[in-house]
Amino acid sequence: LVRLRARLARSQSALGRGLLTVLSRDHLEEDDWEEIEDSLITADVGVEATQVIVERLRERVRILGTRTVAGVREQLVEELTAALEPDLDRSLRTTGHEGRPAVVMVVGVNGAGKTTTCGKIGRVLIADGRTVLFGAADTFRAAAAEQLATWGERVGAETVRGPEGGDPASVAFDAVKRGIETGVDVVLVDTAGRLQNKIGLMDELGKVKRVVEKHGPVDETLLVLDATTGQNGLEQARVFTEVVDVTGVVLTKLDGTAKGGIVIAVQRKLGIPVKLVGLGEGPDDLAPFEPAAFVEALLG
Ligand code: GDP
């Protein structure tokens, strides 16, 4: 929690400043509620979600008759945590199958942090005693396969690559095939995120998925989202959820943004469990997403 707090320092300051001033008062006046609202909107919780949260918060406070700082803060923590749907299953489906590895597909727009996230997940799994193979199915960006292979060397995973500009689906197929042959536990498939149009994306990702599924079902499809792109990024991301069956969200770059509240907007708008958060560029800067701890860290 201490580390999470440190990494969320910027979000805290955005959310915290307004809230702390409000919550340091003896009693809350009408204007104070607006200030709470502004703080949440500034932190990118989203207008609609903020209205719901503040409405419910006011109702809680009214029913409980509490207007003390501690009382309101406690209710706010509960309300924000509830908005994050704490009961969702956020575990990664990496158990694997008889004679076949678990397959995780990683999707998202270019620059969101897909390759980095593959590397970090590999690191976590390997530290947990699992064996991992990377499939570099982002064959469009010249440096992408190289970058993934570097992560592979760093964390101790083999990387299957194809020729530059080659067919992403065939690289994905070969990666899973190799994973079966070498008996690894998990194959992570990094994909390309060219969002030129929905049809192109649908064709490409759909094909990668179909081809991989010749070996067996994809266990997990993770959508990687850059927290710093805010509400616009969220709209873009929706296309992916229409194209592939996304089973989890990874929200990256939460360390670099004052808009940590975006997690609430993402959880609410996409309705898909946020499973992991990226808190930096290093191999250990990935954390499981835990709503209660996250809210505590966010409020500082
Ligand atoms: P991709 O195009 O989706 O594969 O994105 P990359 O994995 O290449 O990441 C794009 C940039 O974002 C790189 O410079 C990464 O180091 C950086 N990045 C990825 N995740 C995080 C994160 O959680 N925090 C920070 N600060 N940077 C990140």
Features:
single chain; 300 residues; alpha/beta; 8-stranded mixed beta sheet; 12 helices; 14% strand; binds guanosine-5'-diphosphate
- Kindly report how far apart the N and C termini lie: 10 Å
Work out the helix count.
Answer: 12
Q: Structural class of the secondary structure composition?
A: alpha/beta
Principal-axes geometry comes out as elongated
Largest sheet: 8 strands, mixed
The SSE string, one letter per element, is: HHHHHEHEHEHEHEHEHEEH
What do you see in this structure?
With 300 residues, the chain is of the alpha/beta class. 52% of the residues lie in helices and 14% in strands. The chain has helices at 2-7, 9-23, 30-42, 47-64, 69-83, 114-127, 142-155, 168-182, 198-212, 230-243, 262-270, 291-299; strands at 102-107, 132-137, 158-160, 186-191, 220-226, 248-252, 274-278, 286-288. It has an 8-stranded mixed beta sheet, with helices on both faces. Strand 5, helix 10 (230-243) and strand 6 (248-252) form a beta-alpha-beta unit. The longest helix has 18 residues, at 47-64. The termini are close together. Bound molecules: guanosine-5'-diphosphate (GDP). Guanosine-5'-diphosphate (GDP) binds next to helix 6.
